[in-house]
């Protein structure tokens, strides 16, 4: 309810602003907390059924309280409308492939070359791609989030908008504690992404990878484990060795882009994929008059789609299957382009 200025003054005179609003807010918060604790009894039963140890259950459940900031952040997310205009990529590129991020990436790349080379041999994923994703996700481990995962995920599950997802992630977090990771270690974003790769807990359980040879995949404290886990994720998503993510190209002014339109609809994040052309081989693109900005072509038989993120007359990109694998990590053209372009800079 919204009050006009005069009505608001009369309400204050009668009951006092502090009494009206603080008592009402406190009552609502108390009701939410009571409902939250009641909800936790059902989750506790599921934890027992999944074999979570009594020690972890007792350490976590009595300490959980509702995190209203997490609910606020979740409800503030975009509603998913796909009707707004798509902004230009150039400003995003300038912010995310800047000198500081490039230099820090090159330093990390050189510092970890021994481990990275081994991971690349095992996975087929270029070292620079792993480093670039690490840089995009957490600024090379500098910014990993400060929310307590059990509390944040229990709150999101209680809220109910995506209960099945967040209940599963909350229970996965308890399993991480059973594996010996402390609650102090299990910090992350308000939405539950954690560690250097910003994995959800269930993703860690599936794809966390030991990269330093100590027998434990510690994506919170071991840079080598972070990079090995990123590489393992990309392999699981279908990365193809010896295929570039894509190349920047100049498109001839007379090319009929409309005739190259993709006529299929992706079942996943369709607005991202609808900006891509149909697939053609690199040889076919070359025959259409496209020119690589860096002077080289991938193999003639490599398939690619065309994306013009800033419109006609600006740098365009031929994007391979491996670009789609990067989209599996984060389904955003701006994100995936930035990963590829930052990787190219880091590897120089």
UniProtKB/TrEMBL annotation:
Superkingdom, natural source: Bacteria
Coiled-coil stretches: none
Domain Transglycosylase SLT: start-end pairs: 35-344
Keyword Cell division belongs to the record: no
Any Pfam family: SLT_2
Keyword terms, alphabetized: Signal
Segment forming the signal sequence: 1-30
Protein name as it appears in the record: Lytic murein transglycosylase
The organism of origin for this protein: Stakelama flava
